[in-house]
Design brief:
This is DNA-directed RNA polymerases I and III subunit RPAC1. The chain is an alpha+beta fold. The chain has six helices and 16 strands. The protein has helices at about 15-20, 50-60, 80-90, 115-120, 185-190, 265-300, and strands at about 20-25, 30, 60-65, 70-75, 95-105, 125, 145-155, 155, 170, 170-175, 180, 195, 205, 210-220, 235-240, 245-260. β1 and β2 (about 30) form a beta hairpin. α3 (about 80-90) crosses α6 (about 265-300). The two termini are about 30 Å apart.
């Protein structure tokens, strides 16, 4: 709450610099701590208490670069803790679709079944996770939970009449060989944007003549906290806005989010914001329940 006995004063220049800048020196950055106490600048007549109105007024997001795979934007007016929360949520709590279960019917390649399954799980799948639901417990899978792919490939010699020929067909198993098998109404729902791997040239395995792989893979919805294959970003980082005087603007963060292709990069930050809002609501509810619980105990 604002301090009623503190007027709207002005901080001295050197104190204002300490409040808003991180200073860079030869040995290490300085003035890195954020001053949160409401009465920290009481002597200068400045109210340092948090104001939602001021926060809304100062908060800005400015997009600097945007393409199909990456977005670079400035977030101005937030603390480093909030910026880091966004970074961590982007990495581990924004849902994505990834191959989770692999049913191998035949694998005569040199790649072990376990390695093959792990490689398939790391292939980014172009499917909007917001259109699917996570399976809970022993819930039966259906078209709203699972995306099915089939891989059936066999390596043969290119010239069957010449046994000594080194030419081979299907010697490299690529992500483009994964064939989507629509379940239920998926074909109609995703008619305009067919579900498939983001990249067609990801190497899965190598085959020699006579070797083959036959399998079925199921994609399910999950988050990167469970396994990195469900992380929808390749990288998510931020840095403080630099100044020529080698300082940093404390509340101006330059975000760089590179999508794996599962979701457009401009939508990933919005999904991260939704998760953060839900976390804040859950924390507020826990605090409210704790206060009410203590009050109830006092009355009794």
């Amino acid at each position: 709450m604002p301090l009623p006995h503190v007027s709207d004063g002005t901080l001295p220049a050197h104190v204002e610099e300490q409040r808003t800048r991180v200073s860079i020196h030869e040995d290490a950055p300085r003035m890195t701590a954020t001053v949160e106490a409401a009465g920290a600048y009481f002597a200068s007549g400045v109210d340092n208490s948090f104001s939602m109105e001021r926060f809304r007024r100062d908060l800005r997001i400015e997009v600097q670069q945007l393409d199909e795979e990456e977005i670079v934007f400035d977030v101005i007016g937030i603390d480093a803790a909030i910026a880091n929360a966004f970074r961590r949520i982007l990495l581990s709590e924004v849902p994505a679709m990834a191959i989770d279960k692999v049913f191998i019917l035949n694998n005569t390649s040199m790649t072990e079944d376990e390695v093959l399954a792990h490689r398939l799980g790391l292939i980014p799948i172009r499917a909007d996770p917001r259109l699917f639901r996570e399976r809970v417990g022993d819930e039966d899978p259906d078209e709203h939970h699972v995306i099915a792919f089939r891989l059936e490939i066999k390596c043969t010699r290119g010239n069957k009449d010449d046994p000594g020929s080194s030419e081979m067909v299907n010697s490299r198993v690529l992500s483009s060989h994964l064939q989507w098998i629509p379940q239920g109404d998926q074909e109609e729902r995703f008619r305009e944007r067919e579900i498939k791997p983001v990249h067609d040239d990801i190497l899965i395995a190598k085959l020699r003549p006579g070797q083959e792989i036959v399998l079925e893979a199921w994609c399910e919805k999950g988050i990167g906290k469970t396994h990195s294959k469900w992380s929808p970003v390749a990288t998510a980082s931020y840095r403080l806005l630099p100044e020529i005087r080698c300082s940093r603007v404390r509340d101006h963060f330059i975000f760089s989010v590179e999508s794996t292709g599962i979701l457009p990069p401009e939508e990933l930050f919005c999904e991260a914001a939704k998760v953060l809002m839900q976390k804040a609501a859950d924390l507020a509810q826990l605090l409210k329940d704790a206060v009410l619980g203590q009050g109830g105990g006092a009355d009794e």
